[in-house]
Amino acid sequence: MSHSTQRITALDFARAWAIFGMIIVNYKLAMQAENNGAKWLIEIAGLFEGRASALFVMLAGLGVSLMTRKARSSMNKDLILNNRRSLYRRAIFLLITGMLLLLVGWSADILHYYAGFMLVAAGLITVSNNRILGLTVVILLASQLFLIVFDYSKGWDTTFHEYASLWTIEGFFRNLLFNGFHPLFPWLSFFLFGMWMGRQRWLDPENRLKLLLYSLLGIVFFEMVSYSLIQWTSSVLDNESTSYLFTTKPMPPTILYVLSATCSAIAIIAVSVYIVDKFEKSLLVQTLINTGQLSLTHYIGHVVIGLGFLEAVGRLDNGNLAFAIAYGCGYFIISLYFSYRWRRWLTRGPIELLMRRLG
């Protein structure tokens, strides 16, 4: 494969693992099973929290950079306009789809946030790399400030599973911008960093090892900073406040969480490039690539089909973490098989085809 083709398929490979992680996290959330299991199982399941979805969003930013590369390099007004129109149409499609998922009760939807990411991306096609990186930093700093100034818990129930005021204008925009599951502040920074990264040569063969090592070191560094700050400030602030300000968990999404999750996403992307480079012809690798190519279909499917089935048989309120993880793994295996069979027939998934027709 050419380096360009290899990079795209490696992103699909990484996207499949992002989908797997999101399935595990979302199923344990939907079943309210986060703390109902063995300690070691809780710890393993906790590793996916906020990491899989951060990878998913960063890959979307990377994809937009690759999609708009020709328009950006040529500065052709017609190409730029066509790309913008395509992003606008995708934003509308994702907004409608996400709102439908919210209406059927899936409060952790990410697609309506994606609509916001696409709208921002449409306006940044020709913006310089430095400005995109600068905007990312501004969003991070503003997000941390918002956590201090505003009430992050406003709108949530006591379990942080349901957003009571979502269907009010104030509540919807508060959720969208500040304290939802994936609010634009700071989740837009993952997307923008992905856009910026897609314009670099980091994934070229000569840079891959450094990218992997630096990202792994970054994870260790930011986790150590988080731990140290929580310990050092515990004598001044209460435990809840120190965790709120310096946690690397996704809720609330602090600067340290975003930086640590960004490093995690980069590491997975770097490993994916290595694996696709070495084992591209492997049936398992190809099946995972196919699954990543159908990521939108699988995201909607794991909610509508996966959770819909549990609700139909009365197991959605199971509350058992082992069952949630086992069910998630089983659903992902079925998704792998579906992707393999579907890609032998058509190049795009059913939802991807629908979005392509509209955008």
Distance between the termini: 28 Å
Q: Structural class of the helices, strands and pairings?
A: mainly alpha
Encode the helix/strand succession as letters.
Answer: HHHHHHHHHHHHHHHH
Radius of gyration: 20 Å
In one word, what is the shape?
globular
Can you count the beta strands? 0
Present the secondary structure layout.
Layout: H1 3-30, H2 39-46, H3 52-67, H4 69-74, H5 77-103, H6 111-123, H7 129-149, H8 169-179, H9 184-198, H10 208-233, H11 239-246, H12 255-279, H13 283-293, H14 295-312, H15 321-343, H16 350-358
Helix pairs in contact: 1-3, 1-12, 1-13, 1-14, 1-15, 3-9, 3-12, 5-6, 6-9, 7-9, 10-11, 10-12, 13-15
Structure description:
This protein has a domain at 74-200. Helices cover 74% and strands 0% of the residues. The protein contains 16 helices and no strands. Helix 3 crosses helix 12 (255-279). The protein has helices at residues 3-30, 39-46, 52-67, 69-74, 77-103, 111-123, 129-149, 169-179, 184-198, 208-233, 239-246, 255-279, 283-293, 295-312, 321-343, 350-358. The longest helix is centred in the first third of the chain and has 28 residues, at 3-30. By secondary structure, the protein is mainly alpha-helical. The two termini are 28 Å apart.
